[in-house]
């Protein structure tokens, strides 16, 4: 879509020019009276609070999907499809966990994603390392409602991340481009 050059205003000064483009959003903007009490953010927060009872179910579904992807790998090996599904399931948990109130599960899923992304050969990753991540995510989702589990889940996620980083640093010792990524801080929300 080409812009109409007549809508662009150019003011010339002795030492500079000021170019003003039209704001196309002005056409779709709706002015609201100050007495209008509609607050879209408050409406969104209210809707989110109404859905919060579903968060546990959603996280359970995502954790089960991760377990199913891992079971497919154990049964059929590290095929491209199986590895991609394992990564997608872990990545979805990493992205959704903090929103759904499971930040420790997000941290464990982030650690698993890093293993999948940075291991030279996924088949050479100790199977216990992947299984521990999946079991931790399952336990965090299942036991989150108990008050004493939050600190334990946080400690478990940090420990898994440490073990995963240690493995990845050793596995990538001859691949400096990967070491830089392995040593980078996590982008997943922390507790």
From TrEMBL:
<dbReference type="GO" id="GO:0000160">
    <property type="term" value="P:phosphorelay signal transduction system"/>
</dbReference>
<protein>
    <submittedName>
        <fullName>Hpt domain-containing protein</fullName>
    </submittedName>
</protein>
<feature type="domain" description="HPt">
    <location>
        <begin position="66"/>
        <end position="137"/>
    </location>
</feature>
<keyword id="KW-0902">Two-component regulatory system</keyword>
<dbReference type="InterPro" id="IPR036641">
    <property type="entry name" value="HPT_dom_sf"/>
</dbReference>
<dbReference type="Pfam" id="PF01627">
    <property type="entry name" value="Hpt"/>
</dbReference>
<dbReference type="InterPro" id="IPR008207">
    <property type="entry name" value="Sig_transdc_His_kin_Hpt_dom"/>
</dbReference>
<dbReference type="GO" id="GO:0004672">
    <property type="term" value="F:protein kinase activity"/>
</dbReference>
């Amino acid at each position: 879509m080409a812009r109409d050059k007549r809508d662009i205003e150019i003011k010339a000064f002795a030492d500079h020019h000021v170019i003003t483009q039209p704001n196309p959003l002005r056409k779709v903007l709706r002015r609201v009276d100050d007495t209008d009490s509609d607050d879209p953010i408050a409406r969104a927060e209210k809707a989110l609070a109404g859905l919060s009872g579903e968060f546990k179910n959603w996280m359970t579904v995502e954790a089960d999907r991760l377990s199913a992807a891992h079971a497919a790998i154990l049964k059929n090996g590290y095929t491209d499809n199986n590895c991609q599904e394992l990564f997608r399931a872990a990545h979805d948990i990493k992205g959704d966990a903090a929103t759904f109130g499971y930040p420790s599960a997000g941290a464990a899923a982030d650690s698993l994603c890093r293993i999948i992304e940075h291991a030279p050969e996924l088949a050479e990753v100790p199977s216990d390392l992947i299984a521990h991540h999946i079991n931790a995510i399952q336990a965090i989702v299942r036991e989150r409602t108990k008050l004493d589990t939050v600190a334990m889940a946080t400690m478990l996620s940090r420990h898994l991340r440490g073990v995963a980083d240690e493995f990845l640093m050793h596995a990538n010792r001859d691949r400096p481009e990967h070491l830089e990524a392995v040593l980078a801080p996590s982008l997943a929300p922390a507790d």
